[in-house]
Specification:
Blueprint lengths: L1 H19 L5 H6 L5 E8 L3 E2 L3 H11 L4 E4 L6 E2 L4 E8 H29 L8 E3 L9 H10 L13 E3 L1 H7 L2 H11 L6 E5 L2 H10 L3 E5 L3 H11 L4 E5 L17 E3 L2 H4 L6 E8 L1
Parallel strand pairs: 6-11, 7-8, 8-9, 9-10, 10-11
Antiparallel strand pairs: 1-5, 1-12, 2-4, 3-5
Helix pairs in contact: 1-3, 3-4, 4-5, 6-7, 7-8, 8-9
Length: about 280
Amino acid sequence: MRELMNLNVDNLILQALREDITSEDITTNSVMPNYQLGQVELICKQDGVIAGLSVFQRVFELLDDKTEFDIKAKDGDEVKSGQLLGVIKGDIRVLLEGERTALNYLQRMSGIATYTHSIAVLLKGSKTKLLDTRKTTPNMRVFEKYAVKVGGGYNHRYNLSDGILLKDNHIGAAGGVKEAVAMAKEYAPFVRKIEVEVENLTMVKEAVEAGADIIMLDNMDKDTMKEAIKIIDGKAETECSGNVTKENVANLVDIGVDYISSGALTHSAPILDLSLKNLHAI
């Protein structure tokens, strides 16, 4: 995670800090005008899965690289309400300035990891892998997709440059499934898999005949998906998508798809409640 941060996310964190501090933290500067060494505790207020501790730390490091951390958990740990997750020591002004941004990242990422984990356990023992989508918060994708992995899920394509997914509007623009797949094969390097989103059994048959590598069964009922699996008959990998949530995923396990994708992992996960408490001078 450290290498990923240094290469990709420092600028995103700095943007978040600039959003919160346009010129100064006027509240902190009014009560703490000069340097004072202090420490504060990171407390978990809700059971869940923690994710984003390195991002949390990086917020304070970018404000002051002399900030020290005694972190007592690691990403992926199941944490409990009331648990002490760490102690942060440094300039009290920095601890106050970075508090909200650091917690925003950690709470959001831990919430996604927690929600992902709650669905992933329902697929345990099956061949089906749980995938995220591109339904992420702008400028938060790298953090949110990392959190999905921490929670036990897998990442679908990272962005539009990462893979070919022919959705309904692409198919409409091309003139049909067969035409869209043919054009994708002609344009894309041979190392790229071609995934096609289909909405009915006619489209399933067209995708198989066109040689799609992955066929996404979008918003189909369970019986239709089972029939689609028979038609595909191992000629392509299969993915189920469309309003997949914690409440209905268990009903999809016995269909036998290779992947289940859920936008809810990133767009509907509630935060995990965390807090910085007991700040005092030392």
